[in-house]
Amino acid sequence: MLKKIDRGANFVRNNGALFRCPKCHSQMIAQNYQLRCEKGHTFDLSKKGTLYFLDHQIKTEYDVKLFFHRQKMIKSGMYQPLIDKIIPFCDHEKILDVGCGEGSFLNEIATKVAIDASVGFDISKEGIYLATEQPNEAFWCVADLTNLPFQKESFSILLNIFSPSNYQEFERVLKKDGKVIKVVPGPNYLQELRQAFYPEDSSKQIYSNQLVIDKFFENFSNVTHQKIQYTFDIPKENRASLLEMSPLEWNASEKIKEELQNHLIKKVTIDLELLIGSF
Predict the structure, then answer these.
(1) Dihedral angle computed from the Cα positions of residues 130, 150, 215 and 194, in that order, rounded to the nearest 10 degrees
(2) Grouped pLDDT means (10 residues each) for the chain, 279 residues
(3) Which of 86, 87, 198, 254 has the most crowded CB, counting CB atoms within 10 A?
(4) ∠ CA 27-29-31 to the nearest 5 degrees?
(5) Is pTM beyond 0.85 here?
(6) CA 53, 57, 60 angle in degrees (round to 5)?
């Protein structure tokens, strides 16, 4: 089995045309264990086979602990009905997973269809390092959503699941006939968890992503919009992970978090908005 750095080197060697320099926007070529642009900017592969395209390290509140528990929940089947809806669009495509976190959505898709090439990026180095533990052949990197290190029209599918968007950059890197697949929470998403964390604050128990949905319709043509709603029975061994998998717990009181650890939630509502569009 190849080392991660060798696997990463093989990917950039075979798919160097996907990348552009985030500093000067020129073409890049693979040399040994790095990418180098024509103006001499270089980006070295890490031991984990990843590339770091940021000028400076950015600290986010999304830490290894959160990503670890999110990965456990995704692998438990919590989002399988959503993944099943996305899979048919991904067969033999070049896929960019925007804000991929720890890579579980892209990994689950890759187990079901043959993907021509797949890249996942996130602003969190912690998420990307965890993504390198995934068994699929995706390439992982740390990058800025507003300055994507990819060439024009490089990808046929952009996944944008529970993550921010930059439609100007999306349009640049997406092929003319490509699709953006965006997923945002619906108003009842994880409502049991919201109610448990904030029993006295009704404003945190429900919310709306309608402005995000409206903006998607403004930017894309031929939009498909589908609601996905179901109740997920949480496997016993994953119930504690539900409490740790999202930012919802960040502002909850320690007393409430302790009570929930002793009375774990057994079922949770999944309420999602699936948006698919072309420019």
Answers:
(1) 0
(2) 93 95 96 94 97 86 92 97 98 97 96 95 95 92 97 98 97 97 97 92 83 97 96 97 92 90 96 97
(3) 86
(4) 155
(5) yes
(6) 110
